[in-house]
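Table 4 source record.
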Amino acid sequence: MTIQADLEKAVASAQSALGTYETFAASTQDDTAKAMYKDLSGDMERHVAVLKGRLNYVTENNPMNKPIS
């Protein structure tokens, strides 16, 4: 597996976790738990952004993605 494929998997996993935290926040009536899940959701949004940034960098700078001259 390539680093690009690994990053794609990591992005998908982080997006899944983000969705789970958002669901938990929306589903609970406990204000403390709701705040915790919202905090975790915010953290995961940042994780997704960082991973997507790295994936974009790797994709753009991968020599296999460059046209042959």
